[in-house]
Design a protein that fits this description.
globular, mainly alpha
Length: about 450
C-alpha cells in the first residue's frame, strides 16, 4: 500500500504545481483589464520619482509599492508576483479545508486554483490574488485561534485591496468560537487589523489626504444579462457551474449536516458571500470583484456535500479553465481565451499607434481603456506631439481645439464619452480615427 501524502510534502507539491501551471501565461502584457496596466505604469513612476502615487483610487499601496521594485522585469515579473501569491492562496486554502477535516484537501487546493476567475487573476498584474492570499491566511489563523496574526494578515490584505476590510466581521465570527475569551480575542484581532491597514495607507493619505476615499465611477452600468454572466460563467466557467450543480444535488440528496462545532464557520462563509455579492451588485464592473466568494463557496460545498459528490465536483473544476462548454460546442477555456485576447490587445495597440503617429500635426486621441496600455508600451510618446487620453470633458476638448490640436477618437469612444461625460466629441470637430485610413470613405457615424 502506498503511504498517504504527508502534510508538508503535499503543501510543497501543491504550491509548486500551482506556480508552474501559471508560467506559460505570464507574457502578453499585464492583463486584459486596463487596471493591470495602470499598476505597471504607476510602479514605474514610483520607482523613477521615489514618491508614491495611486494606480487608481482608493489606492492599493502595498501592491503598488512592491511592484515598483520589480517593474523592470516587465509582465513576467509583475504577473509572476501574482502567480506567486496564487500559489500561496491555493496552499493556504488547502490548509484551511484540511483544518476543517477534508481528506481531499490537496485536490481541493488544486481545484480552487483552477477556477477560471482565480486562474485568470493569477496571471495578471491586478491586486485580486494578492489580497485573497492574505485574507485566507487571516482565516487560517482565526481557525487556529491566533487573533493577532489574523489581524495582521487582514491588515496587509487591506493594504493590497481596501475592500478586504469587509472580511472583518466574518473572520471575527470565526474567532469568537475558536477561543475561550471571544471579546478579548476579537478586540485584539480588530486592533491589529486596523493598525496595519492604517500604516499601509499612510503613503496614500500623505499624498492625497482624505480625498483618496473614492473610486472611479466612469463606467456605464452593464445590462442584467451581463451582470449575471460575469457572476456565473466568468467566475466558474460552464463546467464549474456544472460542478456546483453536482455538489448541490449531492447535498440535497443526502442531507449531509456539518458538525455542530462548525456553525460559526458556516455563518461566516455565508456572510462573506452575502457581503461581496452586495458589493458587486453596487458596481458590477468586473467578475474579479467576486473572487473572494470562490473559496468561501467551495468551503461550503465541502461542509454540506458527501465525499463522492465532492470529489466529482472538484475534478470538474480541474479542467474548466481549459475547456468551455457553449451552445455551439466546446471552446477554449477562460485562461486560453484570456491569453489570446491579451495577444490581440497588443496587436491592436500597435495598429492604433501606427495610425496615430503617422497623422500630421498635433493631435489628441481619445482611446479609452487603451490609454494605460499605450502609456506603458510607448512611454516616450508622452512627450511627443500627440496626446492619448481615455475620455474628455467639455473643457478639455475646448482647450485642445484652442491650442490648435485636432481631435480623434476610436470608433466606440464617441458614444462612450457621451454616456460618461455627456460630451459629444464630434461637436468639437473630433473625427473617427478610421478617417485617417481612408479620408474619402468612412463608416457612417452613430449619433450618441
Amino acid at each position: 500500500m502506498r503511504p498517504a501524502l504527508t502534510k508538508t510534502t503535499g503543501f510543497v507539491c501543491l504550491f509548486a504545481l500551482v506556480l508552474l501551471s501559471r508560467l506559460p501565461f505570464l507574457d502578453a502584457g499585464y492583463g486584459v483589464s486596463p487596471d493591470a496596466w495602470r499598476v505597471a505604469r504607476v510602479a514605474r513612476e514610483i520607482s523613477a520619482s521615489g514618491e508614491y502615487a495611486v494606480s487608481r483610487f482608493p489606492g492599493y499601496p502595498l501592491q503598488e509599492i512592491i511592484c515598483s521594485v520589480f517593474w523592470r522585469g516587465g509582465p513576467s515579473a509583475l504577473n509572476g508576483l501574482s502567480a506567486f501569491f496564487s500559489a500561496i492562496a491555493a496552499t493556504v486554502f488547502a490548509a484551511i479545508i484540511r483544518k476543517l477535516g477534508c481528506p481531499d484537501w490537496f485536490l481541493a487546493g488544486l481545484a480552487v486554483a483552477m477556477t477560471p476567475i482565480f486562474f485568470v487573476s493569477s496571471v495578471s498584474s491586478k491586486d485580486y490574488i494578492w489580497a485573497l492570499a492574505f485574507v485566507l491566511l487571516s482565516v487560517l489563523c482565526a481557525l487556529n485561534g491566533r487573533a493577532f496574526s489574523a489581524g495582521v494578515f487582514l491588515g496587509v490584505a487591506t493594504g493590497c485591496r481596501l475592500t478586504s476590510l469587509a472580511m472583518t466581521l466574518p473572520i471575527a465570527l470565526i474567532l469568537s468560537g475558536a477561543t475561550p475569551y471571544p471579546w478579548r480575542t476579537i478586540i485584539k484581532f480588530a486592533t491589529a487589523a486596523g493598525v496595519v491597514a492604517l500604516l499601509a495607507f499612510i503613503p496614500v493619505w500623505q499624498r492625497y489626504g482624505v480625498s483618496f476615499l473614492t473610486f472611479y465611477g466612469n463606467h456605464v452600468r452593464p445590462s442584467w444579462p451581463m451582470i449575471l454572466t460575469r457572476s456565473t460563467v466568468e467566475l466558474w466557467g460552464a463546467l464549474g457551474l456544472l460542478a456546483l450543480g453536482i455538489a448541490a444535488a449531492g447535498a440535497w440528496l443526502t442531507r449531509k449536516q456539518p458538525h455542530l462545532t462548525n456553525w460559526r464557520v458556516v455563518a461566516s462563509l455565508l456572510l462573506m458571500v452575502a457581503i461581496y455579492i452586495a458589493a458587486y451588485l453596487r458596481l458590477p464592473d468586473q467578475a474579479g470583484y467576486l473572487l473572494p466568494i470562490v473559496p468561501a463557496i467551495l468551503l461550503l460545498v465541502y461542509l454540506f456535500t458527501p465525499r463522492r459528490f465532492l470529489q466529482t465536483a472538484l475534478c470538474c473544476l480541474l479542467i474548466t479553465p481549459f475547456i468551455e462548454l457553449t451552445a455551439v460546442g466546446l471552446r477554449p477555456g477562460a485562461i486560453l481565451a484570456d491569453h489570446q485576447q491579451r495577444l490581440q490587445n497588443l496587436a491592436n495597440i500597435r495598429a492604433i499607434l501606427n495610425i496615430a503617429e503617422n497623422a500630421p500635426g498635433s493631435n489628441v486621441f481619445v482611446v479609452g481603456a487603451s490609454e494605460p496600455q499605450i502609456a506603458v508600451l510607448a512611454p516616450h510618446l508622452q512627450r511627443g506631439r500627440n496626446h492619448y487620453v481615455d475620455i474628455m470633458t467639455a473643457s478639455e476638448a475646448k482647450a485642445a481645439v484652442e491650442n490648435g490640436q485636432s481631435l480623434y477618437y476610436l470608433p466606440t469612444m464617441r458614444r462612450f464619452n457621451y454616456s460618461v461625460n455627456g460630451v459629444d466629441l464630434a461637436k468639437y470637430g473630433a473625427r473617427d480615427m478610421r478617417s485617417l485610413l481612408n479620408p474619402f470613405k468612412i463608416a457612417p457615424q452613430i449619433e450618441p
